Amino acid sequence: MNKVALIILAFALLTSCVKVDVVEVELPTDDEFIVQGNVIKDQPFSGVRITRTMPVNDVYNLEEAVIKDALAFIRINNLKMISLGYSKAGWYKPTLEPYARSGDKYELFVKIGDTDIYAQTVVPDTGGIVSKYFTPDSTFQINILGEKSSVYGAIWEIHNDSYDIFPLVDFYNLIEPVSSDIPVIVYADKVPAQYKSFAYANKLFLRIYAFDIQYREFYFSGGKSVSVDNPYGSSGGRIKWNVKSTNENAIGLFIGMAINKPVIYNLH
Questions:
Q1: Tens digits of residue pLDDT in 39-64
Q2: pLDDT for the residue 236
Q3: I want to staple 39 with a disulfide (CB 3.0 to 4.6 A). Which of 13, 114, 190, 256 is the partner?
Q4: Angle 31-33-34 from CA coordinates, rounded to 5°
Q5: b/e burial code for range 64-92 (CB count within 10 A of at least 16 → b)
Q6: How would DSSP label each residue in 46-94?
Q7: How far apart are CA 148 and CA 110, in angstroms?
Q8: Can you tell me the distance from the alpha carbon of 144 to that of 132, in angstroms, rounded to the nearest whole number?
Q9: Do both 200 and 233 map to the same domain?
Q10: Judging by beta carbons within 10 Å of its beta carbon (0-12, 13-18, 19+), is residue 265 exposed, middle or buried?
């Protein structure tokens, strides 16, 4: 094992936002396969990316990291099976693009040499907003009727004149409902002061996310501050990925999610 100080780029599963943390981690010398894929409600399933980790001292090179000879397929609701074929840049695309619906169960099967890889996820629903308001400490509270086995979070975004989207802060919390009949309290963090000016009037939006509950374990085990290309967690601990393999040489996240339409807020 090599102990080094790494600069870990924040992997934003949902965004292009980047932050920097310096952490000391234990790095294994063995190669591992990396599997990435999202199943997003009301969108066609676009496939998974399959790559491998690079040697510790090498500059990350996608062309050298991609896996091109994997056998992969998905199974939906224990019935429909769809093969995934290699496309480019490590991506394996479905021969038919299924449209993800709330409640659908997706299973992923991958074989690379003598390694069998498996992951499963359920597509959540965004839930219904019961009420929303700013709290005395300037956080924003949203009461949501959601579903168990899902977690909910909210993020502020800036939408500029070029239709680019910039998330402002990370999730304040990710909460699982106790039941579908009791609203869950989700908070969005404080809006940074510089974005409260008139220059950002009509550009500030709130967006609510729902994830398969497996995402919470990944997120709070360090996944919120790790690049999938440098997949070793902060404080020397391993991220809790939901991708499993027979030889314990695969990591990654194959996760169901739902994204609400952004709601505009004018603070003036």
A1: 999 999 999 999 998 776 777 777 88
A2: 36
A3: 256
A4: 125
A5: ebbbeebebbbebeeeeebebebeeebbb
A6: --EEEEE---TTSPP-HHHHB--S-EEEEEETTTEEEEEEE-STTEEEE
A7: 29
A8: 9
A9: no
A10: middle
Residue in this structure with the two tokens 């936002």, named with its chain if needed? 17
Pair 96, 31 in one domain: yes
Burial class of residue 202 in the structure, from the number of CB atoms within 10 Å of its CB (0-12 exposed, 13-18 middle, 19+ buried): exposed
In the sheet with 140-145, reading across from the earlier edge strand, the strands are: 128-134, 140-145, 184-188
Do 29 and 86 share a domain, yes or no? Answer: yes
List the domain range (segments joined by +) for residue 71. Answer: 2-123+214-255
pLDDT tens-digit series, residues 66-125: 999 999 999 999 999 999 999 999 999 999 889 999 999 999 999 999 999 999 999 999
| pTM listed for this prediction | 0.81
Domain count, the chain: 2
Residues 20 and 64 in one domain: yes
- Token pair of 160, please? 């500029």
Residues 111 and 224 in one domain: yes
Q: Which of 198, 204, 199, 206 is nearest to 268 (CA)?
A: 198
Q: 105 and 39: one domain?
A: yes
SS3 helix, strand, coil % of the chain, rounded to 5? 10, 45, 45
